[in-house]
UniProtKB/TrEMBL annotation:
Entry's Gene Ontology molecular function annotations: ubiquitin protein ligase activity; zinc ion binding
SUPFAM superfamilies linked: RING/U-box
Keyword terms, alphabetized: Membrane, Metal-binding, Mitochondrion, Mitochondrion outer membrane, Transferase, Transmembrane, Transmembrane helix, Ubl conjugation pathway, Zinc, Zinc-finger
RING-type domain mapped to chain residues: 292-328
GO cellular component: mitochondrial outer membrane
Catalysis performed (reactions): S-ubiquitinyl-[E2 ubiquitin-conjugating enzyme]-L-cysteine + [acceptor protein]-L-lysine = [E2 ubiquitin-conjugating enzyme]-L-cysteine + N(6)-ubiquitinyl-[acceptor protein]-L-lysine
GO biological process, alphabetically ordered: protein ubiquitination
Protein name per the record: RING-type E3 ubiquitin transferase
Amino acid sequence: MDYIAETIALSIDSLILAACIKQFYKNKNAMAMIQGAPYLDINKDLKEIVGTHPEKKLTYVSIRGTVKPLGNPIFSNTNPNVKGVIQLLRIKEHVIQRSTAGFWADSERVIQEVHNVMPFALENKGIQIEVCDALAADVLDMDVIADNFQPTVPSVIDHIWSFFAGVRQRGVQSTEKMLRTGTVITGIGELVAGKDGNLKLQPPSNDGPFYLTNMRVTSLLKKLDGSKRNYKILCIVFGSIAVVLGGLIVRKYLRIRKEKGDAEKQRMQLELSRRERRRRIRDEDLDENQLCVVCKTNPKEMILIPCGHVCLCEDCSADITENCPICRSEINYKHVAYGI
Ligand SMILES: [Zn+2]
Ligand SMILES: [Zn+2]
């Protein structure tokens, strides 16, 4: 129990530190993989290039082309002029929630999320490469077509209810995002020739990140580098906090150990002086009324307060805690009687 605050702080700090280290390495590995991925132009020679590789597969490459639907595109729900190949419809509820600590804080939760996907390809110079399993992408950049927030006007009953329930709705946000046709995007993943001979870009089998982004490779690398640097700073900050907390725990441990040691030393000294005092007294011949009324062996050593009777030895006084054996009055406190 002595270290509970420090332990909780250190645990929380360690969790954040671990998450930051994980993100730092995730960015670092992604950068290394992207830097090692050859950039290939989409052109008529590409099929031939892929065909020369074992299993007609290039594990990790980057290509860039224009999004083109294979079939009918999806039309936006909010703007009929916009068409695309992937549509995300999300309804989010914003609430103010009472935390376990008793504070009210904003939070949000997704009520509904729907993805609509059409088969599509990346096209350049009339050559198309189909993109498979686009929703599995680690980064999938889409345009925000609509984003509306509908605030809730709470009634008196809602206020009362929220007071007891600990949750009050602030409003509902509905968002529509689309990967529009005609957008130029960079695809980083595995390039493979299908059974029909057509090229496909799919999630890589080497655990590398799958990207479908409107950034060019250089911008993507710059962004990842920036993010890597931020996580590095966070790692240093939370790492330093961990060191400080660890230092505090060690210091507290040493302090408590020293206090215990000091108390033990003091107790030993008292015990020694007590023995010495007794030895001196026992050497003298004591008559009956100088002996402890309970054991009749040791000298009377303790004064009982408030009655003031000196009638017990230290050993017996340890067992007798409630009433004075002479006058039966309550014992509030005992002290060594040095006057004997
Ligand atoms: Zn005694
Ligand atoms: Zn008494």
